[in-house]
Amino acid sequence: MSDTGGNPAGGRRILFIVGFPRSGTKLLRKLLNRHEQIFVTQELMFVPWLLERWPGYGDVARRENFARLYADVMRAHYFAVRAVQGMETLSEEEWYTRCATFDPAGVLLPIMRREAKAPEHPGLWLGDKSPNYTTRLALIKREIPEAKIIHIVRDVRDAALSARKAWGKNMYRFAQRWSDGLRVLWRDFGGLPASDVLELRYEDLLERPAETLARVTAFLGVEFDEKMLTLDLPSENLGAAAGAREILPGNVRKYQSRMSERERRRIESVCASELRHYGYECRIDAPSRRLSRLALGWYALLDVINRFLFDLKLGRGLRFVAKSTLAKARMRL
Predict the structure, then answer these.
(1) pTM beyond cutoff 0.70
(2) Of 96, 188, 99, nearest to 151 (Cα)?
(3) Structural domains of the chain, ranges and CATH numbers in brackets
């Protein structure tokens, strides 16, 4: 059966959820997936990488060209990790036969449907939640013009605290990447129709979930469903929300009690303009100021070491860590 994206009129409903790490993308995905018309898979990660290389494959309706595409995608991080873990993946034959068309959207929809475990029903939204797409939206919209984008943002001070707790990330480098990434996202959003993009604040999702999720369903043109206000399974296995099956309205503004004054001021100096843009309180009344290249290089090295130690702590063997790292590096080339 070929995949048309579920729209009986022939249109394709494709959704991308983006946002920086520890900003609520996972929670938003889980809540939206409670809706019977929304199926979003988690972190395929390879979509921009594939779109950049798309012209090199030629007409992928030709089996030899599709075979090259398939072989490349199977080496991407998402599938490389699944292979190490012994998980089943979509075969080349099944993927090819499920493509209704052989443009980027037509090729990606069968993967989204399978990985999100979506039924073969018409009228469904199929999508992907991947934080690394946040700075690649212009590319995604150029190649998949029917796609809709939801960006969720969280106060960088809380997000940085969460990233440090989860992975040992350096908070200052995290803040600089947050600031830089948002400026890329704003540039990309400036060239897109307002009807195709929606921005949410994590804090609003936690403190006013019904109102915030109603904005999402209106954006997607589906009815609001009360089931979206609870989780069938925990959305997090790390951080303060680990194991929670409900929305935690108190999981906000933790930086006020858990961040030193020095840490707070330095992060605010890096992200002052962006904090004010989203209505977050900020004590620094000046434009954002970049960290030095030397400092960022040092923090990046520490992040690599801490991430390696994190993977080993979780019991991921050296083979898993090495293959995962190589797959991620390959996608950056």
Answers:
(1) yes
(2) 188
(3) 14-332 (3.40.50.300)
